[in-house]
Design a protein that fits this description.
Blueprint lengths: L11 H18 L12 H10 L5 H14 L3 H5 L3 H8 L5 H19 L7 H4 L7 H11 L10 H9 L8 H11 L5 H14 L23
The protein binds iron/sulfur cluster.
The site of iron/sulfur cluster (SF4) has 13 residues, from loops.
Length: about 220
């Protein structure tokens, strides 16, 4: 039976079929979905992800090149003077906390991992300024490891609108998504939902009339 918009309570099997169809359509709609934070390596992506808290990717992409010119690697960043970092990243907001996270992260990577960004959830998520969400971004995009699903504001919002999760806590939403989608697609799924959330299912003004998920979405406004 083809997947369709759920009416009332949806069985697990029906929800999984709907999730598969959602994934298929989003892949077709956004074949170029990718991480929109510019980066050349794991170090740059880690810094950019720390900077992206409460800030747009476009602003981070404007600011980060100056940071990487001044501090091209963890060693350089670990020895940075906080005032200098603050000045460079000021326009991304929360610049004092972000400076603490950046320098703290760099020091921890130098001290604990000999200067190499670790490629494991356990080691990444305990670095200063890095939690599970940021660790998922690094693992999925810098190392090609699908350990979890990055749940940002778009992924959380769309998961609820599409009724793939009823939770509000990001880690619970992540668990719900991991149970519905194949592991090989977890990093991509996050990009697809973010692309959709930025281009079509825009907060407070979703373009349901032009949405490829309209017949699968319990929140469609027609
Ligand atoms: S149908 Fe509307 S609410 Fe549902 S995903 Fe599409 S744009 Fe968002």
């Amino acid at each position: 039976m083809p997947a369709s918009r759920p009416r009332g309570r949806e069985s697990k099997v029906a929800m999984q079929a709907r999730a598969r169809e959602i994934l298929k359509r989003l892949k077709k709609r956004y074949p170029d979905a990718h991480c929109e934070l510019d980066h050349r390596n794991a170090f740059e992506l880690l810094c950019a992800t720390i900077l992206s808290a409460q800030c747009t990717d476009a602003r981070v992409n404007l600011v980060a090149p100056a940071l990487f010119r001044r501090y091209p690697d963890v060693e350089a960043l670990s020895a940075a003077r906080p005032e200098e970092v603050e000045e460079i990243i000021r326009s991304t907001g929360f610049f004092r906390n972000k400076t603490k996270s950046l320098i703290g992260m760099a020091n921890a990577v130098v001290d604990r991992h000999g200067g190499d960004i670790p490629a494991s959830m356990e080691q990444l998520k305990v670095l200063p300024g890095v939690g599970r969400k940021t660790a998922n971004v690094i693992l999925g995009n810098a190392f090609g490891i699908n350990e979890g699903v990055t749940v940002d504001t778009h992924v959380g919002r769309l998961s609820r609108l599409l009724r793939l999760s009823r939770n509000t806590d990001p880690e619970r939403i992540e668990r719900d998504l991991m149970a519905l989608f194949p592991q090989r697609d977890w990093a991509l799924l996050s990009h697809l939902l973010i692309f959709h959330g930025r281009r079509t299912c825009i907060a407070r003004r979703p373009r349901c009339g032009e949405c490829v998920l309209v017949d699968l979405c319990p929140s469609a406004q027609l």
